[in-house]
Automatic annotation (TrEMBL), chain A:
Compositionally biased region (Low complexity): 134-144
GO molecular function term, any single one: GTPase activity
InterPro entries membership: P-loop_NTPase, Small_GTP-bd, Small_GTPase
Region (Disordered): 133-178, 222-259
Name the UniProt record assigns to this protein: GTP-binding protein ypt5
Keywords carried by this UniProt record: Nucleotide-binding
Statement: the UniProt record of this protein carries the keyword Nucleotide-binding: yes
Alphabetized Gene3D superfamilies for the sequence: P-loop containing nucleotide triphosphate hydrolases (3.40.50.300)
Organism: Coniophora puteana (strain RWD-64-598)
Classification of source organism: Eukaryota, Fungi, Dikarya, Basidiomycota, Agaricomycotina
PROSITE patterns: RAB, RAS, RHO
Coiled coil ranges: none
Ranges annotated as biased composition (Basic and acidic residues): 249-259
Pfam family, one: Ras
Automatic annotation (TrEMBL), chain B:
Tree of life domain: Eukaryota
GO MF entries: GDP-dissociation inhibitor activity
Matching Pfam families: GDI
GO BP, one annotated term: small GTPase-mediated signal transduction
Name of protein: FAD/NAD(P)-binding domain-containing protein
Coiled coil location: none
Family statement drawn from the similarity comment of this UniProt entry: Belongs to the Rab GDI family.
GO CC, any one term: Rab-protein geranylgeranyltransferase complex
InterPro entries according to UniProt: FAD/NAD-bd_sf, GDP_dissociation_inhibitor
SUPFAM superfamilies named in the record: FAD/NAD(P)-binding domain
Region annotation Disordered: where it falls in the sequence: 500-525
Length: 259, 525
């Protein structure tokens, strides 16, 4: 971020993205795959990160995703209104091997439509698709990198997935067709993903990036009102907007730190 | 992991009741220090007595919703709940934030500042002689102030220099620490009564004329040291309702550190389990909605939410530091929504209003404070000052084209009049002085906020049932009071919880410095 301090006019657009979904569907793993291109089996329930950031290049624009994980606060209906506020995008995750998790995802979509920014771009992600694929079909699933993510670390193909075993298709409880139909009806982007193999992960974030009204965000940021995210354009126009950077004595650009 | 599976773990270092600002800061500090925390609130939302409401939630609370303790009394409201009521953030604890002080230190030390936005407070005015006068925010303002004679300016500057320094050992204060502040200003610094009142009410933010000198001086010093830090105003305004929103941020830190938060849960039973000596005292709490109890070595609670079973053990740590203000037993409050920009139009800012009568075209105030000293308003209070706090769309607490006005009057005794009767004259005067047009509020509400009913007796022997000190409703000191109280509670909790073999206190400092590994490392991308 050394560049952000010097070149204060950063062309990147900050986009706040929130994750939602039932516990243990793999929300954090989806982000970890996107941000670090890693997968940790048997990952502990979410600990540690307030939010992560990752850039995503789209034509001549760079989106900087500020990704908020629930930190487990979804469990007892204790997500704060602060969580949804100013989110321009949401990824609602369910587990294709757990039917009830799609129902939970639907209720999160309703909650977003009630609480969040009316223009929010929502993507539905059926995760753990690796569990329901036979080894032949899983193949090399993460070859879908497009030029869009030229500088995006996650576009690099991941390690080859371990061979699934057994009769995986029997594990599936949510059919692709059913979820897709719901997503279409509700106006959501839809993907089946595997944080383990990387399948579909980059696509979610790229497709969301295409749908985000970037010009609108830039315009409202310039105006100093209706700021996109909690951190939106702080370095750029913060002063004009009257915003005070409380940590101004510290080195700039710690917006990606773990807590 | 379904909702009713209960807490992921039955054992905690501390169970914390309440998500008010103080409890939330304590919870976050303990979580960051590595303790296991269960953070619960019987309310369906974060913030307890500091919470932020939409207009609809606010009127529900005034009308019937008894979930937040203590309950409001003398409540009334008029007007319509706006259809976009969610775009308003109505704070139960409207307060500005000192730019330098314990609260800002906690915001930065915890990282919670990154979740919110902060702006400098706009103008501060004082109502005297039927007009609002601008309060100088800097030395330059004092120099330029045309209402003051050269002698008065010199005396005032002498006082400000004194108040910004280490006055504790200054001879001018010796033996006069408990003298009435107004008397002290007039006798020791030869300031005239009007200047003395301006200092006492709009710099020290005194509630009344009978406050002693030393605490007022401490408050002024805090103000003077805050001025110029981020800009001319010593105060910041937190967006989206301020303190209640910030409390959510501290609660998020608790979760981010791997701990469990649960809202809307009540205690069905609670027990103290002592095996022999007291250091091994354990507490067991059953919560509705969860089949299994949770256990802890320490209980931390707001006075309102403390389970009855723990009352006899409850203790509140004595504080070595304070914000130097004593809390009133209740506060009469008003909230109004208007759709006209507010201007401090009649402010004789530089007194050059004779030369250029520019009172017509001043920019609207996005945030500002008006102080009504005691006896300043004919139909107002003789004894106490009233603070008006204005928030506009820039504070993100209202939608475009709308302004919120908060009024607060501290009450020493149960009042004979209703909150509405007490505060209506102030609201009327604020509106008529802040706009050339006739403004009638779209919505207005009045209520009395009581102090907590449970008073933990002083001098109780320290235990592991720690009750947070009472809420400070002061417009300028609420956040600092919460942070100081939280630090005292944190220190006591650490004493109870730390392993006996660790002598080193370092890992348990309040907001330990961020470690290297926590630094952002995404920058190379």
């Amino acid at each position: 971020m050394a560049d952000a301090a010097s070149g204060s006019v950063d062309r990147s657009v900050q986009v706040k993205l929130v994750l939602l979904g039932e516990a243990a569907v793999g929300k954090s793993s989806v982000v970890l795959r996107f941000v670090s291109n890693e997968f940790q089996p048997n990952k502990e329930p979410t600990i540690g990160a307030a939010f992560l950031t990752q850039k995503c290049r789209l034509e001549d624009r760079v989106l900087r995703y500020e990704i908020w994980d629930t930190a487990g606060q979804e469990r007892f209906h204790s997500l704060a209104p602060m969580y949804y506020r100013n989110a321009q995008a949401a990824v609602v995750v369910y587990d294709v091997t757990k039917g009830s998790s799609l129902e939970k995802a639907k209720s999160w979509v309703k909650e977003l439509q009630r609480q969040a920014n009316p223009n929010i771009v929502i993507a539905l992600a059926g995760n753990k698709v690796d569990l329901v694929q036979s080894s032949s079909s899983s193949g090399n699933t993460s070859t879908s990198e497009s030029e869009d993510e030229a500088d995006d670390a996650t576009a690099t193909p991941g390690e080859t997935p371990g061979s699934p075993n057994g009769e995986p298709e029997s594990l599936r409880q949510v059919s692709r067709e059913e979820a897709h139909a719901y997503a279409t009806e509700a106006g959501l982007l839809f993907f089946e993903t595997s944080a383990k193999t990387g399948e579909g992960i980059v696509e979610i974030f790229t497709e969301i990036a295409k749908k985000i009204p970037i010009e609108h965000i830039l315009a409202s940021t310039r105006g100093g009102a209706g700021r996109p995210g909690a951190q939106g354009a702080r370095e750029g126009v913060g002063r004009q907007g009257g915003d005070v950077n409380l940590d101004e004595n510290q080195p700039k650009g710690r917006d990606a730190c773990n807590c | 992991m379904a909702d009713d599976d209960g807490f992921p773990d039955p054992n905690y270092d501390a169970i914390i009741f309440g998500t008010g600002l103080t409890e939330s800061i304590v919870a976050a500090a303990l979580a960051k220090a590595g303790f296991r925390v269960a953070h619960v609130d019987s309310n369906p939302h974060y913030g307890s007595q500091d919470t932020v409401f939409s207009v609809e939630e606010f009127v529900n609370w005034l009308d019937k919703d008894s979930s937040i303790l203590p309950r409001p009394t003398s409540a009334s409201w008029h007007g319509d709940v706006p259809t976009n009521h969610r775009q308003y953030s109505i704070s139960l604890s409207p307060s500005v934030i000192h730019s330098v002080g314990p609260f800002i230190s906690s915001l930065v030390g915890s990282g919670v500042y990154r979740y919110g936005e902060y702006k400098l407070l706009g103008p501060v005015g004082i109502y005297e002689g039927t007009e609002i006068k601008m309060v100088p925010q800097s030395k330059e303002d004092v120099f330029k102030a045309p209402n003051l004679s050269l002698v008065e300016k010199r005396r005032l500057m002498r006082f400000l220099l004194f108040a910004a320094g280490d006055f504790e050992n200054d001879q001018q204060l010796q033996g006069k620490e408990n003298q009435l502040f107004l008397t002290f200003l007039q006798e020791t610094f030869s300031l005239n009564e009007e200047i003395a009142r301006t200092i006492a009410y709009s710099l020290a933010y005194c509630y009344s004329s009978d406050e002693p000198a030393l605490p007022c001086l401490n408050r002024i010093r805090r103000c003077l040291r805050s001025a110029g830090h981020y800009g001319s105003s010593p105060f910041l305004v937190g967006s989206y309702g301020g303190l209640g929103d910030i409390a959510q941020g501290f609660c998020r830190i608790v979760a981010v550190c791997g701990n469990t938060c649960a809202l809307n849960v009540t205690v069905t039973s609670a027990a103290i389990v002592t095996d022999g000596d007291s250091p091994s005292t354990r507490y067991t709490v059953h919560l509705d909605k969860f089949p299994k109890p949770i256990h802890s070595r320490c209980i931390i609670s707001s006075a309102d939410l403390l389970p009855d079973q723990f009352r006899d053990l409850a203790f509140t740590p004595a504080s070595n530091t304070s914000v130097d203000v004593s809390n009133p037993s209740a506060v009469a409050r008003a909230v109004a929504i208007v759709d006209q920009p507010l201007q401090f139009a009649n402010i004789a800012q530089s007194g050059d209003d004779q030369a250029e009568p520019d009172s017509t075209e001043r920019p609207p105030v996005d945030s500002g404070v008006i102080v009504f000293p005691p006896k300043s308003l004919q139909s107002g209070s003789e004894a106490t000052s009233v603070h008006a706090y204005i928030q506009g769309p820039g504070t993100m607490s209202t939608p475009a084209g709308k302004w919120l006005i908060y009024l607060a009057m501290p009450l020493a005794h149960p009042p004979i009049l209703s909150a509405e009767e007490l505060l209506t004259p102030y609201l009327t005067e604020t509106l008529s002085k802040c706009s050339s047009a006739e403004i009638s509020p779209l919505f207005k509400a009045f209520y009395i906020q009581q102090a907590s009913a449970l008073r933990v007796p002083e001098g109780r022997s320290p235990s592991s049932v720690i009750v947070t000190p009472s809420h400070c409703p002061h417009i300028a000191l609420s956040g600092d009071a919460a942070a100081l109280a939280a630090e005292e509670v944190f220190k006591r909790a650490v004493k109870v919880l730390k392993r006996p073999d660790t002598e080193d206190e370092a890992p348990y400092s309040f907001w330990p410095p961020r470690e290297k590994s926590e630094e952002p490392d995404e920058d190379e991308w």
